[in-house]
Write a structure and sequence with these properties.
By secondary structure, the protein is mainly alpha-helical. The chain has helices at 6-21, 26-29, 40-48, 71-88, 108-111, 129-141, 150-158, 162-176, 184-190, 197-207, 211-223, 228-246, 255-265, 270-287, 295-307, and strands spanning 30-33, 57-61, 94-98. The protein folds into 3 domains: 6-111, Rossmann fold (3-Layer(aba) Sandwich); 129-190, Helicase, Ruva Protein, domain 3 (Orthogonal Bundle); 197-307, Zinc Finger, Delta Prime, domain 3.
């Protein structure tokens, strides 16, 4: 599964889990390997294990693109994964699922996923018609009626953050009332515009090391209704762009924005940007209930660490 949209990834994983395991003996036949836990031997042991009281076993390797510290470690993991995919092609007992936010088709391990293996795209649609279509479909799923232009208005305020959009629809429906159509005014009152401008102010403060200002901006965004998940999504996108620019790559941004990204990227080493992205990943887990911090404290702690 390749792509950074958590809603698409989680739905795909849930569908696969049901289809493969059907709820039977999940404790024995479902194994998850995080980037921190993943080693060549751990992967080999996982795929060699046999199902217990079931026909199939499911092994999920999460965030493979973040696994392995150093080029040598990543190369060993890549080679092990390539061999694992080859060995699993001739059997049906063990199903291996690998997730990655980025899966460059030039990488050897990505090329290994050819028939009978398949690639599931989990990228959010680009801002615009694709996001509007998602909002309209999600509104129909939640039995909500949107007045004309509401889907576009919501997409412009939140951006292509599907998991956040799903929650915002439910929230604005409560404001509108049972069986009442949702209007643009409802959206404006219930949501905060986090698509672009506020996050630039926040990232400017973070990248300048202005911790106090960054925390104050975060508090203002949270206080005006921004969901921690939406802010995290914007920070993740921003720091991925910085990592690409710092590594010599390009991003789709205008002259002013491209210049600002380049200036911010020069303040970081590639190693520090990797650490920032790892910290963002940890916060994503915290927002999903891992750990004891509240959602607001988890995102505040992240902002402090990124700007420190």
């Amino acid at each position: 599964m390749a792509g950074g949209e958590p809603l698409l990834r989680d739905k795909s994983l849930a569908t696969l889990r049901t289809a493969i395991l059907g709820g039977a003996a999940d404790d024995f036949n479902l194994e998850r390997l995080t980037p921190e836990e993943l080693t060549p031997s751990a992967l080999e042991d996982s795929i060699r294990a046999l199902p217990v009281m079931a026909d199939h076993r499911l092994v999920i390797v999460g965030d493979f693109d973040r696994a392995g510290r150093g080029a040598d470690a990543r190369e060993r993991l890549s080679s092990t994964l390539v061999e694992a995919v080859k060995s699993l092609a001739s059997q049906t007992e063990t199903v291996l699922v690998v997730t990655a936010s980025k899966a460059n088709s030039r990488f050897r391990w990505v090329k290994a996923f050819k028939s009978p293996a398949v690639r599931v795209a989990c990228d959010a649609p680009k801002a615009g018609a694709g996001v509007v279509a998602f909002i309209e479909a999600e509104a129909a799923r939640q039995d909500l009626v949107l007045e004309k232009g509401v889907a576009l208005h919501l997409s412009e305020r939140i951006g292509p953050q599907l998991l956040v959009l799903q929650g915002e629809l439910a929230k604005v429906a409560l404001l509108a009332g049972i069986d009442e159509p949702i209007t643009r005014d409802h959206v404006t009152a219930s949501t905060c515009d986090v698509a672009d401008r506020p996050v630039w102010d926040l990232t400017d403060a973070i990248c300048a090391g202005q911790t106090g200002k960054a925390v104050g901006l975060l508090a203002r965004m949270l206080g005006s209704g921004s969901a921690p998940e939406a802010i995290l999504g914007m920070l993740a996108s921003h720091f991925r762009k910085l990592a690409r620019v710092r590594g010599g790559g390009g991003v789709s941004a205008g002259g002013f924005m491209a210049e600002k990204l380049s200036k911010q990227a020069r303040r970081h080493s590639q190693r520090s940007l990797r650490s920032c992205l790892e910290r963002i990943h940890e916060t994503d887990a915290a927002l999903k209930g891992v750990g004891s911090l509240s959602r607001e404290m988890a995102i505040e702690s992240l902002v402090i660490d990124l700007s420190g």
